[in-house]
Write a structure and sequence with these properties.
- By secondary structure, the protein is of the alpha+beta class.
- The chain has 4 helices and 7 strands.
- Strand 1 and strand 2 form a beta hairpin.
- The chain is globular, with a radius of gyration of 29 Å.
Length: 180
């Protein structure tokens, strides 16, 4: 019986040694993950912004659109500025719109969803659309081409707009109502 007890002790010691060696080997074999630094990320961002710019320029040329680019990177063509005052924070804007991808895929439209009503500065909308609407007055009409960094970025909208998509908004302002 004593002989079996000694064998059992040796067996447990052997298992502990194997387990300990196995753990040490796993620690020594840890994989080093290279993480890009700020400079590499900035360079990648500049590259992506430049590629998006080239894609937008090609699209505008193919469609014969006379687009301008804002300092922030929004591409726009004002068809009709409208009349009255430019839109500002807290203005309620009601618009008809089509939102599509550059390949022509219609994502969202006031024809199917109804006019879009927003309050500038309060309603969450794409940063590029927010900037574009401030270029218009009541009754205005425009085309906005919004690069990913001013729209839905790397993740898309989770529904119809894929990641890193350039989107095109064709908007017509129906009216605006001052907030009280």
């Amino acid at each position: 019986m004593r002989n079996n007890s000694i064998k059992l002790q040796y067996f447990f010691i052997l298992i502990l040694i194997c387990f300990g060696c196995g753990c040490n080997n796993r620690q020594n074999k840890s994989v080093s993950v290279l993480k890009p630094g700020k400079d590499e990320m900035a360079e990648l961002n500049r590259y992506l912004v430049q590629k998006d710019r080239e894609i937008i320029e090609n699209y505008a040329e193919r469609k014969n659109l006379n687009m301008a680019e804002s300092r922030a990177g929004l591409w726009y063509m004002i068809i009709n500025e409208g009349s009255g005052d430019y839109f500002a924070d807290n203005d309620r804007v009601v618009m008809e719109y089509d939102c599509s991808l550059l390949d022509g895929t219609l994502c969202y439209s006031s024809e199917s969803l109804g006019p879009k009503e927003i309050i500038l500065g309060k309603t969450e909308i794409e940063q590029g659309l927010n900037e574009g609407l401030r270029m218009l007055k009541p009754g205005g009409q425009a085309i906005f081409i919004i690069p990913p960094f001013l729209a839905y970025g790397l993740i898309g909208d989770g529904e119809k707009i894929p990641s890193r998509s350039v989107i095109v908004y064709s908007v017509k302002i129906m009216k605006n109502i001052e907030m009280e």
